[in-house]
Amino acid sequence: MPTTTGERPFPREDFSGGRQTKTTKFMQAANEVDSAVNAIFSRIGGVEKVTGMLKIGNNVTVTTTSTSTSTSTSSSTSSSSTTTMA
Amino acid sequence: MSTLLVHGYNGASGSTNKLIANSAGYFRAYNSSSSLWETQQGQFFDASTFIDSENFLDYAFFVNGINSNLSYNGSWSTSANLLDSPKAKYIKSLGVSLYLGNVIIPQGGTFRSRVVYSDPPTNNVVVWGLESGADLSQTISTAVITSTGSLFKTRGIAVGDPFYITSGTNAGEYVINSVDSETQITLTKTLAATQTNSSFWCGGNWFDVNTDDGDVLTGFGRNSNEIIIFKRNSVHRYSDRASTLRQVKSYPGTGSFRSIVDLNEYTYYYDPSSNAIRRYDGSDCLIVSNAVEDLLQNMSSAIKDNVVGWATNGKVVEMYIGDTSDRFGNSITNCVLMLDTSSQIWSTRSLPFAIDSAGSYILNSRPDTYVGTPTGKVLMVDNGYKYDTNDISFELQDKVIFPEGSDISVNFDRIRLFIENGLDVQVMYRLMYIPISQNTWKHGEWESLAGTANGDMVEFVFPTNKPRRSTGIQFKLIQSSGDESFLLEKYILYYSNPALR
Predict the structure, then answer these.
(1) How many inter-chain contacts (A to B, CB under 8 Å) are there?
(2) Do B399 and A25 touch (CB under 8 A)?
(3) Cβ(B352)–Cβ(A55) under 8 Å?
(4) pTM of the full structure
(5) Interface confidence (ipTM) of the complex
(6) Does B469 contact A at CB distance below 8 Å?
(7) Bridge partners (DSSP) listed for residue B363
(8) For B412-431, how does the pLDDT look when each residue is reduced to its tens digit (9 = 90+)?
C-alpha cells in the first residue's frame, strides 16, 4: 500500500441527498450527487443498484393460444375456444 | 405494436385474478400456468389508442373514447354495468361512483370537457342516469313524450333532469317534470309540433369542466375524497360529497393521462408546459422536479404527451420520459425519473426498452407494478436483477469534491471504497481546476483508475504518470451485471501537499 508523507483523508460517507443538478457545483449540498443512473438511495447515506424488471410470459404480441371468454350485448352469455392471431 | 394497456383485475372471489394487456388493440389475459397471453376472443379496441381502465364493483372497466366501453369480471361485456354509458376516453372511481371523462353521448354528441358519473350502485349494478334514443314521439301543445325503446326509470332518469331533443322541429333543451313510466316522460313545457322518431338524450349525472376554453379533458386522478380532473392547461377537483367543482388555482395540467400517479395523499403528473413533474397535495400543484430539471428539459418533445408514470413499493414515483441527456452532456437512454417520496430524493433508471403503459395492482396479496413496452413485453417492476434479459448498468457520478476548498490545489493519492457485495465496480475520475499556468486552471478529462473492486473494502491508486494535482476531483463509479444489488456505503479520498497552486 503506498503511503505519502502528510497524507490527509477526505471521507465521503453520505449520499442521502440524491441527484441534484439545479445548482452550481459550489451550491450543491454535501450529500448530493451529479448523476445516479440505475441507482437508488433507499439505504440512508448509501447508494444501491436498482432492482430489475421481470418479463411476464412471452411477448403479448406473439402469443396465441386457446382461450375461453365471452362477450355480450345485453348480458354475458356465450363462450368460445379458438386460436386467434393479432 | 404498442402495449396500450396493462391492467390487473382482482375479483372478490380471488379465483378470477387476471393480468390483462392490450397490444395493438387485442385484449389478452395472462395464464400463469402456461406463461402465455391468451387471446380474448372478440375483444378488440382501436389499434393505436391508449386505454384507460379502472376496477369497480368487482368488475374491470376499459375505455378509449373510440370503441364501446368494455367491462370484465371473468367474462367480457359491452353492457354489464355499462348500459347507456357514453363512450369515454378516461375513467376513474371514487366512493360509490364511476366517473367517465371526455365523452361521446349517444344522440348528444362529443363533449371533450364533460364528466359523466354513475349513480350509487343498485343491487350491485351500476346505473348511469342517462337514456337516449331515436324514437321519440311528441304531440303538439302537450308536454308528454314517449320513447318505446327507453327505460327511463331503470336508467335512473329523475325529475329535474335536462331532456335534450336533438332532431326535428322541437329540438332544444327541456326539463323533466315527471317520469311517468319506463317509456313516458312529462316535460315542464309543452311542445310546438307533433313529431315522431326524433333523436334525444336525457339525464343529469354530468358536469362540464371549463367549457369553451379551447382545452379538453386529458385524464383523472384521485386524491383523498375528490376526483382530480386534468385538462392540458388546468387542474380541477370535484368533491362527490359536496358536488362541488373547483379549479386548482391557475396550475397547468397535463397532456398525458398515463403520467398521472396517485400515491398516498398526493397526485403526481408531468406538466409539459413547464417541463416539470408536479405534485398535487389537495391545495397546490407544486413543481417537485428541480433536481432533475436538466433531464426534463432535454427530453424529446415527441414524448411530452406520452410520459408514463407508476408507483413502486408504495413510496417511489417513477416517470418514463424517453431518451434524454443531463446538463453535463451524458445521454440517458429510455430514461425513467425516480422520486423516493419518503425522502424526496431523485435518481434515474436507464432501460433497454421504451415504456408505453403501466399500472399497479394487487394480484398476489400485495401491490405489484407492471409496465408494457412498444414491442409487446409486459414486465413486473422491482423484480430480479436484470431488465428482462439485459444486465443493469449502474453509474454514479458524484459531485465535485474540493478537499481543501476550491482554491487550494492538492495531490490526489488514493481512494478507498467501502462497498458491500460490490464486485466489479470500476472507478473513473476527473480533475477539476488543474493549475496550467500562473493564473490559469482547467478541467481534466475522465480517466480510469486501474483495477476493479473485488472485496468489501478496496483501494485504487492514482497513476503517477498522469496529472493528479488540482483543487477538485470528481468520481464516477460504474458497474454492469445481472448480479444482485450492492451497497456503496462510503469512500475515503487521500490527498497531500495542499497549496495555493
Answers:
(1) 293
(2) yes
(3) no
(4) 0.93
(5) 0.93
(6) no
(7) none
(8) 999 999 999 877 899 999 99
